[in-house]
Amino acid sequence: MTDLGIDRHRRRYPTGYNLPMSLSRSLVIGLAGFSLVLASCGGDEPASNAARPSPVSSDAAGDDAAADTAAGIAGLSTISAVDAAAIADAPPADLVVLDVRTPEEFAEGHLEGAVLVDFYDADFAGQLAALDPDVPYLLYCRSGNRSGETLGVMEQLGFTSVADIDGGIIAWADAGLPVTGG
To answer: Which CATH fold topology does 49-174 show?
Structure first.
């Protein structure tokens, strides 16, 4: 600012309002808020990295991993759409396919036999708590974000066997797997 600009600023804000400091504070607050929003959006990562299966490096080993996954769901993990399809094709006893999208998204298409629990429902955690924590669940949403957050909630509620489909129904459909409805 030139001296003339400073004088004009002082006449406009005689109580000592500091425009450069105010802009700096606004920027810091804005960035902090943006960081919080990004952190709360979730991601494709499961709530606990300890339960995540180790990556497989070869195609032959990938076939073995798919066969192991089809045998059942152990712990809480994030799995590929292909591994999820293997589970759905040879489901463990009492498997529940859990869709955490909105009713509108569910009506557009869902996995066969899926049960809907709307992630945005005010009583979402209460509805999850009402489910049996001892049966296996195949969990998905649209892209993996909401189901990733749901996996963490289910872990806190004491669920023991939950497999979250990495990439959600988008990855499922991209793999050429069947979708019901819509």
So the answer is: Oxidized Rhodanese; domain 1 (3.40.250)
Active-site residues: which are they?
141
Mean pLDDT by 10 residues, the chain (182 residues): 59 59 57 48 40 33 42 87 96 96 97 97 97 97 97 96 97 96 76
| pTM exceeding 0.90 | no
Which residues contact residue 175 at a Cβ distance below 8 angstroms, ignoring those fewer than 6 apart? 81, 82, 85
Contact 114, 172 (CB under 8 A): no
Q: Where are the domains of the chain?
A: 3-40, 49-174
Distance CA 166, CA 139 (A): 9
Q: How far apart are CA 174 and CA 8, in angstroms?
A: 61
- Say which residue the tokens 């497999």 belong to: 163
